[in-house]
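Exercise: predict the fold of this chain.
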Amino acid sequence: MTHPSAASPEPRPPAAPVTQVTPVTPVTPTAPTAPTAPAAPTGWRRTVLRLPVHMFRAGLGPLFRGRLLLLVHTGRTSGQPRRTVVEVVETATVDGRRSWTVVSGFGPADDWYRNLQRTPQATVQVGRRFHAVTAAEVPAEEGGELMVRYAPRHPRVARRLCAYLGFAVDGSAKGYRTVGESLAFVRLTEGARTAGNDR
């Protein structure tokens, strides 16, 4: 007979596995950012885009019917005259002075935009007529309203412009307003800015 003290101990059930729980870090949503402006064209694309400049200089400006103007601005590094053709988004006359609002399709990094920031005095050619102007940046809120007014007048161009810049629009005023608030608009107003005529 086996002594009770020498009996084999009763086996214990296996312990349940311990599962480690890793805390989940909450993710803070980020606000959507505006698409990056496309790079300025080079090579043959730049040559094609420069064709309207030569047309203006050849006296063919009236063919554009005021939709485009030739902007003569001063190079910020060279100090030499530079010529760029830009689309007119809107025209107006205030206190007898005409103004033309244009937009930089390549954003505020575009050379002509940066040149105007350095030297806002410039010359525009509309048709065959030349006008001395002063450039001023348009606030973002006003830029939104400009785009809302522009889109119904030129719906195809507005959609293509937005697609080119990387914006998805649904054709609504709200959508175009959001795009316009992100664009670099400039208003070119007749007359040089002076201490007594800063408006």
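Check your answer against the key: Residues 43 and 49 are 10 Å apart (CA to CA).
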